[in-house]
């Protein structure tokens, strides 16, 4: 977990104009993706594109609810 600035975060298209959303950005220091909840921007999950893909696949299958 890390504190980060608000630059370069991409909001989920499902969030529309609400403040309660998931945001992503590419981490430049090494090939990784950062993921955070907008109402707790200081908590950031960091993983590879492969681990993010596995997380999304598990969510779509209903494995993680």
Automatic annotation (TrEMBL):
What InterPro entries has UniProt attached to this entry? DUF397 (IPR007278)
Q: Which domain of life is it from?
A: Bacteria
- Region Disordered: start-end pairs: 1-20
For this protein, the record's Pfam families field holds: DUF397
Q: Which residues form the DUF397 domain?
A: 8-60
- Protein name per the record: DUF397 domain-containing protein
